[in-house]
Every structure is written in structure tokens, then in C-alpha cells.
Prior knowledge:
This protein is an alpha/beta fold.
Amino acid sequence: ALNSLAGDDDCRVIVLRGEGGHFCSGWDFNELDTLRGKGDEVLERQFADNLAVLEALAGHPKVTVSLVEGSTMGFGFSLAARSDLVLASDSSRFALPEISLGIVPAIVMTDVQRSVPAKFALDWLLTGREIDASAALQAAFVGQVFAAAGFDRSAQEIIGRIAGYSPAVLLRTKALFRTLSRLDDDAAAGVAINAAIEALNAPAAREGIAALLEKRKPDWPE
């Protein structure tokens, strides 16, 4: 699905959401135990497949949004972590329970390290404790938290706002963000200046500024 949507010009935003009031509860440990019984090669293929999905999500050109509610655990944390935006219901609960099951939380650990401050990450990984949406917001893992009663409406407003922007500008913004994150300060400054000049000369900027001055909705040319 991610691969097919990458080239879909009608797609502006990809939304990940669980069914039944929960985002993702992570591994089915009965299934995992069955896989373990089939040998290390089977486990390795399974983990590689999981990571391939996460890499496809993290590197996707489209804007990706995780709508988090109910339980988010283990691999579910990684799905949210690899999304561009995480919008949470105040009903959300987050946990990394592997340590309590005698399992080193290896697959999810990189995403935890990248997503929250180091002390919080290690506290969470070692205690296996559950945190609520407000704690996840404080740790800067989620971007915004909304009341469960109005979650759908609030989330759709944000998704609709993003989807209403120029598709070309959304793609370029994500690409530039990734580029700048890999550069040192001096190199980033030069790339940013060139990108700003290119952006101001692009058709979308001309239309966006004209629409602002003329007090109308933009009709994006690209």
C-alpha cells in the first residue's frame, strides 16, 4: 500500500489508524512463539519484513499521520515513531512491555532512542511502565492530544488542512527536512538558502502569495 501510494498524485496524506479503538498492541506473542519454534532464519525474515515496512513508512514522500488511541505497544510504537505526525486521543496509553516478558526490546529500541530524550527512553525501556497521552506529549513523542469525544473531528481538521496545501510543496518540504537533518550547520545553511530561493520562484509560491493578497483560496498549479 505504501509503495502504491508513493506515486499516486491524488494522495496528499497517508493516515494510519487501528481498528476497534486501539492503534496497535504490538506482537501477538502466541504467533511469535510459533515463529521461534521454526528457527532463527524464520525469525530473521520476519524481523526484516517488519523493518522494511518501517523503512518504507519513514522514507515515504507523502505526509504520514498516525492517529493514536487506546493501546500502543511495541511495534505499534515504531509505526507511530516513523510517521511524520502523531495525533493522540487522551484515551491513549503507551507501553514497551518486552522487559517484563524477559525480552530485550531490540527492534523498537532504535525508534525509542530517536523519538524521545535519552533519560526518558531508558526509563521507559527498563521499567516497562505504561504512560498516558499527556506524558507522551511531554516527552515530545506525540504532537497534539485531543479529547476522545472530539478526536475524529480534531484530527480530520488537521489532516484536511495539510491536504489542502500544494502537493508539490508538501513533497519538497519533507524532502528538504530529511536533507537538512543529515547536514552540519554550515552546509544546512547553504542548502536552506538555495531551497528558499527556489521555493519563492516556484509557481506554488506565486499562486499562494497572490491568493493571500486577493483574499481568496489558492488554486495550486502543481
